Structure formats: C-alpha cells, structure tokens
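Re-run requested by the PI after the first attempt was lost when the workstation crashed. Everything re-entered from the original request form. Ligand of interest: uridine-5'-diphosphate.
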Amino acid sequence: MKDIAIILGIRPDVIRASKILKLLESSNNLTYDFIWSGQHYSENMKDVFFEQLNVPKPNVEFEIEKGNDAAIVSSVIKNIYNHLEKNKYKAVIFLGDTNTVMGSIAVAQHNIPIVHIEGCMRSYDWRMPEEKYRTTIDHLSDRIYAYLDGYKNQGLKEGISEQIIKVTGNPIVDIINENKNLFESGDQFLSQEISKLIEKDEFLLATVHRRENVLEESSLKEIVNLINKTDKNVIFPMGYTTQKKMKEFNLNLNSNVYVCDPIGYLEFMHLLGRSDYVLSDSGTVVEEACILGTASIQLRFSTERPEVYDVESSVKFDPSEKHTDYESFISKVESLKNTNWEQPFGDGTASEKIVQDLVNLSDTDSFKKHAPSDYPFDISNSLKG
Ligand code: UDP
C-alpha cells in the first residue's frame, strides 16, 4: 500500500507539479501513486508535457465520460471512490480548481485526509465555476499549500484554521528556474511556419480558452477585435473549443495572426520569453510571462492572481465589456515592455517545501484534521453536552 496519492488531470497541472512529481519519485521516505483523472487526454494537451519535462508518468489512469462538466465530475468522483475502496492512503493530493479537484468529494466520502495545492486563491467572482470549486476543496481539506501570504489571509477570513495552511511560494517559479536552458532550445520543436514568422520581426503570442470568453459570442468577438488591432505578427496556439466557437460565431482574424493547434511547453515558453507581449486569459501564462519579464494583456474580468497588476507587468482587458478604444490597451502594454518589475511569486523552493511537508506529515501520520480547538473562532456550542 502506497502512503499517498496525487491526482491531476489537465495540461497546466503536469507543468506546475512536474518538480513535485520528480521529488516524490526520488524520495526514500514516501511512496505514492500518481493518478491521471482523464480530464485532458490528447497528445498535445497531455503526453508532450510528460516527455518534454521528463516527468514520471501516471501509474493509474481513469477512463472517464466526457460529454459535459457534470459527466466529467461525476465520472471522476466514481472512479476515485472505487479506487479508494482498495487503496487506503494516508492522504490524497489535488492541485488547482478544475473538474478534477471535485473528485475530492469521493475522498471526503472515504474520510481520507485531503491535501490541496494552490489553496485559498480567490477571484471573488462567484459566476466562475472555478471559484466554487476552489472554495469547496479548501473547505474539505486537511492540509492546504497556499502560494503567498495574501492567499493564506483569504483562507483565514473564511474561517479556515491557520494550523492547516502552509505558505510555500508558487511552484511555477521552480519550473521556470529549472528549465530555462530547455526553453532556450525550445525553438527546435517549432513548426517551419512559426520559425519563419519569428525570424526577423517582433511578434506577439496569444492564448484564449476560458469558458466565459469562448462560449460567449460577444466576449470572443471583443478579443478578436483587440487582436485584430495589432499590427505585428501574432502566434495564436488555439485550443480546440476556441477553434470550434470561432467557426460557429463566424469570427475572423487578420492575416498577421497565425493560428495553430496547441503546442508543446518548451516551444511555447521559448516564444513567450521572446515575444513582445502576450494576450492571454490563462492564469498560468500571465504568471509565466511576469517571471520571464514579458508584459501581458490579461483577457479577464476578474482574477485570482492580482499580483501581476501590483507589479505592473500586466494590463487588464475585460472581454465582457463592449470596447471602442482597443488601441489604448495596446499602447498601455507597449509602455510596460521596457520596464523592470520584480516577480512576486516566490523564491523557487515551493516544490521542495511541499514534498518535505508531505514527508513530515506522513511520517507522523498527522494528516488528520486539526483539533476542534484550532478553529479561529469560538465553537464551544458544538461541544456542549
Ligand atoms: N501552454 C503550452 N502550449 C500552448 C499553450 C499553453 O504549453 O499552446 C502552457 C503554458 O505555458 C502554461 C499552461 O500551458 O504553462 C497554461 O495552460 P492553460 O492556459 O490551459 O491553463 P490555465 O493556466 O488557465 O489553468
């Protein structure tokens, strides 16, 4: 029987947890199962990341139903529940705010301790399913790794016990520090078309995948209008749902925009480091851009990562609003290009801190929920009798 299980399911999970997985693999003090929930499954949304970052592959993979969010979540819950019937781990670890983390319900049903990496981030935008998911798993968790003090404070305000929150820094810094040389040589994986486009001229990068942007015609149109106002070459690795919706809404990008399927991590990071700036609605991409010194336009109404605005590495563009002044966003981000900011995400030791803490907790078998006396408010009523 393994000590713990880590359950991941989407592209950025593999990237962000890559060092954690390598440290778990080489640990003599902790045994683990790596379970893939099955949420992302295609070669360029999953396998390429294991290969390029040399990450140990999952030893358990679920086959789940795909149809819609309810099908995915219920199928992940069922699969985890059945797996736990035979595997009584000391704890089960999740990361982030996706359909996969809702599998934590099954872990709660078995009353096995839950660990949440990327805990206590909040956009305070209750229209986003992700906000509901991350709030739910934080309140089910027995151990939370929060990247920054500010996130921990958000958890405390919700009454989560200070005893279970540990601040670690953001593991994406670890990944960028460790793989900088690989990003340098990432150009070897670029297609001929992209290599040609970036040969001489300055270029921009774009990614759009969030459901509130992609499924909403007016929001996707605002993003297309903004991108069409740029005059440099734009490389736009476009997710499959976005491609489908662009066709369905009959939206067209100008000829300076090169659209392709999603690309591998090393070539993406190569482009991100060299691009003039990036337009993106991805939480991870704006963090990565900030760390690499690339400015960004964040295509979102609200964010759970306000630090990029605090250090002025990013400009906000809200696609849910109707705009007429697209040029002003472009000149704002152009003006950030030559400024220097200090990345606010940590010192590159987050993965080590997380794995060390898991080893300590597993050693003493102390994953179990904090004592009632740890609650940051009076609970004496519930102990009456
Ligand atoms: N990424 C990639 N190839 C692409 C687009 C993105 O490798 O074509 C990487 C990117 O560097 C980041 C992650 O995928 O690490 C972001 O994934 P996504 O935007 O799907 O998720 P989010 O960050 O919004 O959760």
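Saved to the shared folder this time. The CA atoms of residues 175 and 375 lie 35 Å apart.
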